[in-house]
Design goal:
six-stranded antiparallel sheet, two-stranded antiparallel sheet, 8 strands, Arc Repressor Mutant, subunit A, Beta-Lactamase, single chain, alpha+beta, 19% strand, 250 residues
Length: 250
């Protein structure tokens, strides 16, 4: 194990169990380290935002620790609520389904159900893909206030169909808002399409997306609107189960 990481975590755990801010000398005695080591680690944790100092220069945990834990709990709640819907949607449309959550400029697969189609889309839970190149990412962006910031970065091409123009991506966002779902037309993997709709939490904030994806031949043309309606209905059900009353209202 990395001893520096262990020491830093020891300090964080000690502060977590404390009912008041602690000074360097006091912390050093509790974690059995030199004051110089404790001071160095605390300065690093302070710079990273994991601890804060009060007027007396004593240290305490910052809200960043709470935020990290809250995000994890929120993800677990989303997975538990969405899991049966993911599997029902997979059975309904006979295509693979993903549950995705945003993480900076990516979306991460946190649950999935794979279809029995001979030619089907597959992935692994925990996989991360660029937010602009897949339907789940577009669905999140289209209904999130962070869309402008995300589109300020260069949009990298992954296939010949990847949208790299910010103007064209804005058109995609407009389409998603009008129809209630976003489309990936082979922009991440050639020949694989995706259709996704946003999921809202109890605060009416976008917390993820549910996505149907599969071979272009089964998802293009007249199938797009049918699958889009199914995905949007599944997303609305998950949002309702999470406590959302007014999706998109902030």
């Amino acid at each position: 194990m990395d001893k520096t990481v262990v020491k830093a975590l020891s300090i964080l755990e000690t502060l977590s169990n404390s009912d008041r801010p602690r000074g360097v000398t006091e912390l050093a005695a509790e974690v059995d380290m030199t004051k110089a080591n404790v001071h160095r680690l605390l300065r690093t944790l302070l710079t990273l935002g994991y601890v804060s100092q009060n007027e007396a220069s004593a240290y305490q945990l910052s809200l960043k620790m709470w935020e990290l834990g809250s995000r994890r709990v929120a993800s677990l709640d989303l997975i538990d609520v969405a899991k049966p819907v993911v599997r029902q949607l997979c059975a309904q449309v006979n295509e693979s389904v993903q549950l995705l959550v945003p993480e900076k400029l990516s979306v991460v697969c946190v649950d999935k159900a794979e279809s029995a189609q001979p030619l089907r889309a597959t992935t692994v839970v925990g996989s991360r893909v660029p937010i602009h190149a897949v339907s789940g990412g577009k669905a999140v962006l289209a209904f999130s206030p962070e869309v402008a910031a995300a589109l300020a970065y260069p949009l990298e091409a992954y296939t010949s169909s990847t949208i790299t123009s910010q103007a064209a991506m804005e058109d995609e966002m407009a389409y998603a808002r009008e129809h209630g779902y976003a489309i990936n037309r082979g922009e991440w993997r050639p020949g694989i399409w995706g259709i996704a709709a946003p999921i809202y939490n109890a605060q009416s904030k976008v917390t993820g997306a549910i996505c149907v994806w599969g071979a272009e031949t089964r998802m293009s043309g007249e199938a797009t609107a049918r699958l889009g309606a199914c995905v949007a209905a599944a997303a609305a059900r998950i949002s309702g189960d999470l406590g959302c009353v007014n999706a998109g209202v902030t």
